[in-house]
Amino acid sequence: DAKTTQPNSMESNEEEPVHLPCNHSTISGTDYIHWYRQLPSQGPEYVIHGLTSNVNNRMASLAIAEDRKSSTLILHRATLRDAAVYYCILRLPTSGSARQLTFGSGTQLTVLP
Amino acid sequence: KAGVTQTPRYLIKTRGQQVTLSCSPISGHRSVSWYQQTPGQGLQFLFEYFSETQRNKGNFPGRFSGRQFSNSRSEMNVSTLELGDSALYLCASSSTSNNEKLFFGSGTQLSVL
């Protein structure tokens, strides 16, 4: 799997937007970009994924660079409940393939009240 | 819809013993995968089962094994426990559609003394 690079930690103030970056310079043309987050004492939780175009859902937005070598997860208004480790992961889209995720070390997001 | 259920939540064993962990996937999900999470190594893929067949396996010794039943429930077994097996073991389920997201349980925290 292609490798991703994320900052170890970031801080944000409550109710402000948060931009979590991810570099994936070796991404292949068929890799999807997935984001998961892990809250304390819980398993990882799916956040969002995309291929080329920017994506929005109720949790977050995903902005993908035109060359696809980087992406940014955007939390529009951080809350204390968003404090978690955020993982950026590349996945092949092959139907029927193993559901294997290769997790990096992720970004620990701290939200300050 | 009920989420992924893992039992037990906590487990304490001694070196040399064996342990069996259980995972009930979301209803209708046929793929179950297992991950080990430790502070030093992070989240690492163990194996994945689909329709009672192991489809992919991570880089773990043969002491780690698993199986899946016809109702998609899965168990993983670790024999001859070592201190280094102390970890959070996470199970994830997914449906069969292409590039679908994974749903994780809260995990089983295993402590080996």
Question: Could you characterize the architecture of this molecule?
Answer:
The complex is a heterodimer of chains A (113) and B (113). By secondary structure, chain A is mainly beta. In chain A, 0% of the residues lie in helices and 44% in strands. Chain A contains no helices and nine strands. In chain A, strand 6 and strand 7 form a beta hairpin. Chain A is globular, with a radius of gyration of 14 Å. The relative contact order of chain A is 0.35. With 113 residues, chain B is mostly beta strands. Helices cover 0% and strands 53% of the residues of chain B. Chain B is built from no helices and eleven strands. Chain B has strands at 5-7, 10-13, 19-24, 31-38, 42-50, 53-57, 64-68, 74-78, 87-94, 103-104, 108-112. In chain B, the strands form two sheets. In chain B, strands 2, 4, 5, 6, 9, 10 and 11 form a seven-stranded mixed sheet that branches. In chain B, strand 5 and strand 6 form a beta hairpin. The model of chain B has no long low-confidence stretch (mean pLDDT 93).
Keywords:
heterodimer; A: 113 residues; mainly beta; five-stranded mixed sheet; four-stranded antiparallel sheet; globular; B: 113 residues; seven-stranded mixed sheet; 11 strands; 0% helix; 53% strand
> How far apart are the first and last residues' alpha carbons of chain B, in Å?
37 Å
Order of helices and strands of chain A: EEEEEEEEE
For the sheet with most strands of chain B, the description reads: 7 strands, mixed
Read across the widest sheet of chain A, the strand sequence of neighbours is 1-9-8-3-4
Give the overall pLDDT of chain A as a whole number: 89
Question: If helices are DSSP runs of H or I spanning 4 or more residues, what is the number of helices of chain A?
Answer: 0
Low-confidence stretches of chain A: none
Helix percentage range of chain B: under 10%
Structural class assignment of chain A? mainly beta
Continuous helix count of chain B: 0
Strand elements of chain B, count: 11
Largest sheet of chain A: 5 strands, mixed
